[in-house]
Amino acid sequence: xxxxxxxxxxxxxxxxxxxxxxxxxxxxxxxxxxxxxxxxxxxxxxxxxxxxxxxxxxxxxxxxxxxxxxxxxxxxxxxxxxxxxxxxxxxxxxxxxxxxxxxxxxxxxxxxxxxxxxxxxxxxxxxxxxxxxxxxxxxxxxxxxxxxxxxxxxx
Length: 155
Description:
Layout: H1 2-22, E1 44-52, E2 63-68, E3 75-76, E4 82-88, E5 91-98, E6 102-103, E7 105-106, E8 119-121, E9 126-136
Parallel strand pairs: 1-9
Antiparallel strand pairs: 1-4, 2-3, 2-5, 5-7, 5-8, 6-9
């Protein structure tokens, strides 16, 4: 009888713990340190444009982020493809952009997925004219069929 009571008590504790976590009442576990830059962390600025590589047309609503020792909060480009990442601390950063339908790219990268150039910021420095060119992404879609014309599951 005692082991049954112990099992029920253990199950009750587990259930309450899971419920507290699901409701946001439990303290979340930290997995590593937070590396994002909060508001007011610095005064340096990186400004630039995101353009389509083939046409040089501006890309609206591309997501741009500066990453280095700390990552900036993402910003979106305006209708002219312009962005401004503000409140950056001194340090070295790489700036990358992403947009649905395009391959992600970094400023100064020779090909999609390349690391790009490092932008060194000091104090309240403002870096202008950073250009990121995004290439159109592509996907192949369709149905694979066997010799008799039947669809092949999972292909």
